Amino acid sequence: MxxxxxxxxxxxxxxxxxxxxxxxRFENLxxxxxxxNYADIDGLRMHFVDEGPRDGDxxxxxxxxxxxxxxYRHMIxxxxxxxLRVIAPDLIGFGKSDKPADKSDYTYAGHVAxxxxxxxxxxxxxxxxxxxxxxxxxxxxxxxxxxxRFARVALANGGMPTGDQEMPGIFKAWQIFARFSxxxxxxxxxxxxxxxxxxxxxxxxxxxxxxGSKYKTAARVFPALVPTKPDDPASDANRxxxxxxxxxxxxxxxxxxxxxxxxxxxxxxxxxxxxxAQNREHVTISNAGHFLQEDKGPELAQKLIRFIQEP
Length: 311
Fold this sequence. Notes:
By secondary structure, this protein is α/β, with parallel strands linked by helices. It has a single domain, classed as 3-Layer(aba) Sandwich (Rossmann fold). The protein has an eight-stranded mixed β-sheet, sandwiched between helices. It has a two-stranded antiparallel ribbon with strand order 1-6. Strand 7, helix 3 and strand 8 form a beta-alpha-beta unit. Helix 3 crosses helix 8 and helix 4 packs antiparallel against helix 7. The radius of gyration is 18 Å and the shape is globular.
């Protein structure tokens, strides 16, 4: 059988309006006073946090669905104080980044292409990737297809499905909810994925980028883009990326929580398949849900720092 081929990445050509959340929505968010930075990605404005010394080792923090870089507010200062350059972008369609209007504007391949262009635009190298949820679906693909830019990977509550695996029933229910529910409260959805009871102003901060339904297109579409069948448009590219990771000798750490009903146990596959993950002291985060950055952000940051500093 021929090996799956890695596709040539092309950023999407948009034919629909692009929405941009007003800056006023992001004023006085609790714990989030980082300077806003923007990159032009094929005419789309992509927001990112850039903290710490510019000559520090790069840590790329990729959020998932339906969150944004606000998810990393507890981790960013600790990482920066450790001398690391911390880059936390908002995926296109989320946070302070532009939000194309039509659901057809969002594809798995398109997001991989946007993120690839983002790291090339900033010319990031020696990257430590920390990724969770959709941040892992995108980030792991980008790392596999741009190995020369990445030094190590820390995977938390995520993966890179090919459609050859059976997905949990709770994920299928989530797909149906995202597609059909007339009510799609971003902040409350994040709250459902945490063990911690979030204060009202924190829930409101997760809602901030999404003042109306037209801003939520990406958040609505993302669950349907996860490969759940072997012939999914992303399946071959993900299989090719898995082949890369089957030979990946660079450090690879899993940092899964013990109370995530969607990804719990998924770390075992990575620990067994990735050479760089073997004979390593992997991390289990106790009493944390799907959004473990919200439940145990400082603990995650300290363990990530230790991983980066390992000889």
